[in-house]
Amino acid sequence: MPEESTASRWRTTPLTAWHEAAGARMGEFGGFWMPILYEGILEEHRRVRTDVGMFDVSHMAEFLVEGDGADALVDRLVTNWVSRLENGQALYTPMCREDGGTQDDLLVYRRGANRYLLVTNAGNRDDDRGWIESVALNMPDLIPVRDVSDEVALIAIQGPGAVAAVGSLTNEAVANIGYYHFREGVSVAGVPALVSRTGYTGEDGFELYVAAADAPALWAALAQHGVKPVGLGARDTLRLEARLPLYGHELNRDISPLEAALGSFVKWEKPGGFIGREALAAQKDVGTPRRLVGLEAMGGIPRAGCAVTRAGAAGEGVVTSGTHSPTLGVPIAMALVPRAWGIKVGESVAVEVRGRAVPAKVVKLPFYRRAS
Amino acid sequence: MANGKVPEDRWYTAEHEWIASDGTVGITDHAQDALGDVVFLDLPEVGRHVERGTVFGVAESVKSVSDLFCPVTGTVAAVNDQVKERPELVNQDPYGEGWLVRLDTVDPIQSGPVLLDAAGYRALPD
Questions:
Q1: Does the beta-carbon distance from A324 to B36 stay under 8 Å?
Q2: pLDDT, chain A, mean
Q3: What is the full DSSP assignment across A124-162?
Q4: Cβ contacts from A onto B, under 8 A
Q5: Are the Cβ atoms of B36 and A41 closer than 8 angstroms?
Q6: Which domains does chain A have, with CATH numbers?
Q7: Closest by alpha carbon to A240, among A165, A296, A179?
Q8: Class of domain B11-106 (CATH, top level)
Q9: Within an 8 Å CB–CB cutoff, is residue A42 touching chain B?
Q10: What is the tens place of the pLDDT at every residue in A4-39?
Q11: pTM of the model
């Protein structure tokens, strides 16, 4: 059978065997053999929006950057302002090349002065390690960069029921962990975890970093508590509705954070600057040639790579991500379109879907925002 | 091996469509399961001429897109408007309420070089 022979070509997580035993539909993502869905994307999506679900996202890459000069190194690497974080605080940030193209987007956890955990995309792991090490070599201090991806598993628990679900497995008052804050050494179901109030779904929730060997026990305890697994299929529709970028789609080496409408994560005022600052500043001065917009389509689902045109306007745009929105019940997409179009919310474009022009209108992003 | 239910009272294509003796066409249980939640159907208009083996429409799930192939040559006599409104019917009842179109055809609807009977469809390699 093709599945079995394919699996051996890809990396696995400590939970791969569990997913396969549970009958998940598996597929490759970022070089890993991952669960795409268990019951169905619509049902899993709905569960996270209304209740709670858990994701195995152990494919994500983790790097420890620790030692004198780490503050300066990480601030040089990323566009957001890291050394301003308190200990126990995290942030989302793009990481750029000199030309302003995006090397990756990541979470940075400040564990202490000069002690950071960087969480990047699985598909970029080797490339990120090479890039970070090359930048580190040019810093005045010798700062070791340790790739701990294989030692660390990551389980996300997301949805309005996430606080209750995680809270029931620990004595720690996890409800008091602020958004984009974290605590280390928390015992969850007897497993020591870094508990982070973050996620990639647009819902409240946690991401739990644990030792790879502990992941099956934690996953089983969550399942025992009635938390159901959610695959990468629903993770994609959830993040898209919340307009969270996916590297390789809204961001890549040819797309700058400014084009991807992530300017709020670019800190111009950061002392000492950062890699890519000059290129980004030049883009900012003249305006990026493209800008990211949200689209709602009628009569067809725009998919990544579909061309976007506007009647009477020169040039064309491209869909970066598109899907059927389970929450809204309509086709939605994000697209990079020429800034020269000057297009506004409510105005119309056409998306070429399999040779047919599907009408779409520009809508406000995000497509979905949870009631707070 | 095609998984799922394969009723005896109709014929099948290797592309996982079924056709009943009255020309009603849909996709098989195996096809709907492989697609996942169907969220959009692009179906032809009544009166359109369609050719055997060509694409007459598209079924999309959240993640994937699948072409629909004509089992016979003919004219679209009816389109299931209900399934266009509620594509989930394809998943819930692929051989019943989830039918897609009805074709008027002079092609024989029987097993042969193009159409398979239930046993032939079940025996298809994946």
A1: no
A2: 96
A3: GHHHHHHHHHHHHHTSSS---EEE-TTTEEEEEEESTTH
A4: 39
A5: yes
A6: 2-58+151-241 (3.30.1360.120), 61-145 (3.30.70.1400), 289-372 (2.40.30.110)
A7: A296
A8: mainly beta
A9: yes
A10: 445 578 999 999 999 999 999 999 999 999 999 999
A11: 0.94
